[in-house]
Amino acid sequence: QVQLVESGGGLVQAGGSLRLSCAASGRTSRIYTMGWFRQAPGKEREFVARINWSETTTFYTDSVKGRFTISRDNAKNTVYLQMNNLKPEDTAVYYCAARQSRVVDRYDYWGQGTQVTVST
């Protein structure tokens, strides 16, 4: 089992920045990829970014490219999402997730979520 705990959400004005953290514990050796997802009110959960646990490969959804940066600190078993130039449409609950399979695109473990609210 892997446990994930997010932190760092909050209220920020448009154009501001926040950094989310996701601390992993348990059998972290099983993790292949860590991802961030978000869900806005009345909308489906959407992918935001991902990073491989043992490599530097990253991938972002188009709407956050150039504004968000995903990174990791393996020594701390923590993944970060630096969010700059935030927009009101970034308002959502942000979740981190861990994927074990190199082949199957399915995330096996999820955190509880952290709220990000961007005001105009």
Shape, principal axes of CA atoms: globular
Number of strands: 11
- Distance separating the two termini: 40 Å
Q: Give the topology string: H per helix, E per strand.
A: EEEEEEEEEEE
Structural class: mainly beta
The main sheet comes to: 7 strands, mixed
Number of helices: 0
Helical proportion, percent range = under 10%
Rg value: 14 Å
Give the low-confidence spans: none
Tell me what portion of residues adopts beta-strand conformation.
over 45%
- Average pLDDT for all residues: 95
Short structural summary:
This protein is mostly beta strands and 120 residues long.
Question: How is the secondary structure organized here?
Answer:
Elements: E1 2-7, E2 10-13, E3 18-26, E4 33-39, E5 46-52, E6 58-60, E7 68-73, E8 78-83, E9 92-99, E10 109-110, E11 114-119
Parallel strand pairs: 2-11
Antiparallel strand pairs: 1-3, 3-8, 4-5, 4-9, 5-6, 7-8, 9-10, 9-11
Key features?
single chain, 120 residues, seven-stranded mixed beta sheet
Written account of the structure:
The chain has 120 residues and is mostly beta strands. It is 0% helix and 53% strand. The protein is built from no helices and 11 strands. It has strands at 2-7, 10-13, 18-26, 33-39, 46-52, 58-60, 68-73, 78-83, 92-99, 109-110, 114-119. The strands form 2 sheets. Strands 2, 4, 5, 6, 9, 10 and 11 form a 7-stranded mixed β-sheet that branches. A 4-stranded antiparallel β-sheet has the order 1-3-8-7, with no helix packed on it. A hairpin with a 6-residue loop joins strand 4 and strand 5. The protein is globular.
